[in-house]
Amino acid sequence: MNLSFFDQFTSPCLLGIPLILLSLLFPTLLLPTPGNRWITNRLSTLQLWFFHLITKQLMIPLNKAGHKWALMLTSLMVLLLTINLLGLLPYTFTPTTQLSMNMALAFPLWLATLLTGLRNQPSISLGHLLPEGTPTPLIPALILIETTSLLIRPLALGVRLTANLTAGHLLIQLISTATTALLPIMPAVSILTASILLLLTILEVAVAMIQAYVFVLLLSLYLQENI
């Protein structure tokens, strides 16, 4: 059976049942389970320190009213981070390469931040659509432009995450295929491409972490505008 490079982004199925939900729930098995002791082992201590660091970084741009979102934003950050990193392992499926899933995460959270602003401070939230001191003839055009930029935010969040991860996975597969094909023909070139593949894999690990952080950081900035 001939496989294309994009078959790796197809959701796996078993007996006709999509397994994407299982791939979403699996990262939760890596999280520490609550116990009756403060410290259970070194791994749980490292994980708790990491969660505290993430929460601290995400809450810096927010005031006290935005700290209510700390649990949701930190949980989303950890979920995206674990899914992105586990998706770099061989023979695994990365759910965050699906635009539908990323939009399902981005749109409700963006809408929640927007509705929060319209409920708590409607005049300030609507004031973002028209900068102060705008000439009168430019008011309709600027309102249209600002409204479009506001509505395109969830699409930008989902497309950014999908495009970066999809491009990285495709590059890794292309270079690994070239390395395997060149090994019996030109071993020296194959070794060179293998070293490039190693560097690209390290880069993709960084991209997976950065994209998860950027996704949640932009949501926190959208929240800050509305509280």
Q: How would you describe what is shown here?
A:
67% of the residues lie in helices and 2% in strands. It is mainly alpha-helical and 227 residues long. It is built from 8 helices and 2 strands. The mean pLDDT is 83. The protein has one domain (23-32, 39-226). It has helices spanning 20-25, 42-59, 70-86, 99-120, 122-127, 139-151, 153-182, 187-225, and strands spanning 13-14, 17-18.
How do the strands and helices of this protein lay out in sequence?
Blueprint: E1 13-14, E2 17-18, H1 20-25, H2 42-59, H3 70-86, H4 99-120, H5 122-127, H6 139-151, H7 153-182, H8 187-225
Antiparallel strand pairs: 1-2
GO cellular component, one term: proton-transporting ATP synthase complex
Membrane topology: Multi-pass membrane protein
GO molecular function: proton-transporting ATP synthase activity, rotational mechanism
Main beta sheet strand tally, sense and closure = 2 strands, antiparallel
How much strand?
A: under 5%
Strand order of the largest sheet: 1-2
Order of helices and strands: EEHHHHHHHH
Low-pLDDT regions: none
Put simply, the count of helices is 8
Whole-number total of structural domains: 1
User: Rg, please?
Assistant: 22 Å
Which class of secondary structure composition applies to the elements? mainly alpha
Distance between the termini: 55 Å
User: What overall form do the CA principal axes indicate?
Assistant: globular
Q: What kind of assembly state do the chains in view correspond to? A: single chain
Helix content: 55-70%
Number of strands: 2
**Mean pLDDT score, rounded?**
83
